[in-house]
Amino acid sequence: MKLFSITVVFAVLAMSLVKADLKGDLEKLNKVCAEQSKATSEELNAFFGKGMREEDVTDAVKCHVKCIMEQNGHYKDGSVDQEHVLKTLNAIPSLQDHMKDITAALEDCKNEKGTDECDTAFKITACFNNTEAGKLALAAY
């Protein structure tokens, strides 16, 4: 259950909104991404359990972030799909009055680059999460 809760939090930070059966879809998504990224339950629990500190992230967890973003259409060809992310977030009623700030935060973070695609997806997510708008998006879930 703890891993599922962590996955829900991560999905929000990755700006991923699953519209249908949220719990079931996130469990499936987590399983697919864990298999692709080779991230272990221990790695995911350690990273998310310590507040998602950058010093606690592993390469496998970074690839898990990338996978979740890709599966939700938020990361394509090495960059964030800003239009899709904003459309997803704008569909959340409590965020509609904050889209200007969310857009600005995403604009500030979309060009983050890492050493590879997994690192880039992680850096974009971490950047967004470190903004007030990103925190607001997280709280909306």
TrEMBL record:
Residues forming coiled coils: none
Signal sequence, start to end: 1-20
Keywords: Signal
GO MF annotations in UniProt: odorant binding
Gene3D superfamilies tied to this protein: Pheromone/general odorant binding protein domain
Superkingdom to which the source organism belongs: Eukaryota
InterPro entries: PBP/GOBP (IPR006170), PBP_GOBP_sf (IPR036728)
Protein name: Odorant binding protein
Organism for this UniProt entry: Stomoxys calcitrans (Stable fly)
Phylogenetic lineage: Eukaryota, Metazoa, Ecdysozoa, Arthropoda, Hexapoda
